[in-house]
């Protein structure tokens, strides 16, 4: 009888440990601490929003990290982060409908992008077709576009980049760029440095990154005669933009839900606009 009692006690200890272990996997939902990881394009807004959120909730902890959209989606799927930031949908990154269906998509704002060139490029407008021809290697010299006789130096982003995915979807119309064309950079800061260091350069950057100071370093292109601006994005005149997503594993709960709700709240709208993003409420007519 004594042996049976010990076995029963051991059984209940194992069950209790399993339950506690299961709770640990969702620690972001059951504690006052979460990790937000992913898109570097969304990172500045997430960091500033977390700062103001924590001023109101000082006993909570939020860690915001970059790493790219692919990392954000994969890390939240694996449970290493409670919120994954992405410029593209989970399906585009996971390539698996079942896995993607396990994540909940929260569109938190819209981000615009601009085609930029080095200052020496004497052109201020390109058509979508011309941009496609540049990035597929059909156009290789600026004189073919009415500019000076100098090579076009393409600077692209890594294939894991959500910004590159937005470019691929909205500007390239899902036509693949030429392999090994130009150079590849892994962040907006690296693109900024590379474009400034190389004459005849062309690349693309998020409008949120193009502060007044940064913007002055580049020649910012119109696309089909239309400037990159909030007004033109909302009116559907300008094509280069994307939704910014925050993904959770299953429905958002606890602190993850509180933070996402705050991200899209009217209270946070001024921060969204100040940092160069477009509030999701302004895009209500989009499907």
Write up what this structure looks like.
- This protein is an alpha/beta fold and 287 residues long.
- Helices cover 40% and strands 22% of the residues.
- Strands 1, 2, 3, 4, 6, 7, 8, 9, 11 and 12 form a ten-stranded mixed sheet that branches. Strands 5-10 form a two-stranded parallel sheet.
- Strand 6 (153-157), helix 8 (162-170) and strand 7 form a beta-alpha-beta unit.
- It is globular and about 60 Å long.
- The termini are far apart.
- Mean pLDDT is 88; it is low at 1-28.
Compute the number of helices.
13
* Average pLDDT reading: 88
Instruction: Catalogue the unreliable spans.
Output: 1-28
Order of helices and strands: HHEHEHEHHEEHEHEHEHEEHEHHE
Beta-strand residue fraction: 15-25%
Rg of Cα set? 23 Å
Distance between the termini: 67 Å
User: Which percent bin holds the helix content?
Assistant: 25-40%
SS-based class: alpha/beta
Shape: globular
- Major sheet description: 10 strands, mixed
Q: How many individual β-strands?
A: 12
List keywords for this structure.
13 helices; disordered N terminus; alpha/beta; 12 strands; 287 residues; single chain; two-stranded parallel ribbon; 40% helix; ten-stranded mixed sheet
Structure summary:
The chain has helices at 2-25, 27-30, 43-56, 69-78, 90-94, 97-101, 128-135, 162-170, 188-197, 212-215, 230-234, 254-263, 269-274, and strands spanning 33-38, 61-67, 83-86, 103-117, 125-126, 153-157, 183-185, 201-206, 219-220, 222-223, 241-249, 278-279.
